Amino acid sequence: MIQLEITGVHFEITDQVKSYAQKRIGRLDKYLPRNARSGAQGHIVLIEEQGKAKNRYSAEATVSFPHGEVTAKESTISMYAAIDIVEEKLKTQILKHKERSQDRRKSQRKLRRLKSFRFDQSE
């Protein structure tokens, strides 16, 4: 599970909101590469916006892991909905990062095979 730090701006975070955020964002580690799961850390900032936008909440989340970091921000009328949307955005970014890193490894493996094949042919 991702180690999370949750901060509230302009309001006190209740235990319900805190446990909900930990449950939703904390489970994103299953989408991380296996070698990055142990070092993953997250920071969530929950903001109650003031001024003209009364009853509006924002959620900003950053998940850091070895060789990468993803960030998402969303603002809605419900704190829970903002957390849900941020979780989905982070999931998408993590999967893209994982796919890119796997593609790089595959292409590097193919290059090594090709170089060794060419080297063996020239002898």
Please sum up the structure shown.
By secondary structure, the chain is of the alpha+beta class.
Core attributes:
single chain, 123 residues, alpha+beta, 4-stranded mixed β-sheet, 2 helices, elongated
Main beta-sheet strand count, sense and barrel state: 4 strands, mixed
Q: Biggest sheet, strands in spatial order?
A: 1-2-3-4
Multimerization status: single chain
Give the overall shape: elongated
CATH C-level class is Alpha Beta
CATH architecture: 2-Layer Sandwich
Element pattern in H and E = EHEEEH
Q: Structural class per helix/strand content?
A: alpha+beta
CATH fold assignment:
Double Stranded RNA Binding Domain
- The mean pLDDT is 88
- Could you tell me the strand content as a percent range? 25-35%
Distance between the terminal alpha carbons, to the nearest Å? Answer: 52 Å
Q: Which consecutive residue ranges, at least 5 long each, have pLDDT under 50?
A: none
Determine the number of helices (DSSP H or I, runs of at least 4 residues).
2
Q: Superfamily at the CATH H level?
A: Ribosome hibernation promotion factor-like
Percent of residues in helical segments?
A: 40-55%
| DSSP strand tally | 4
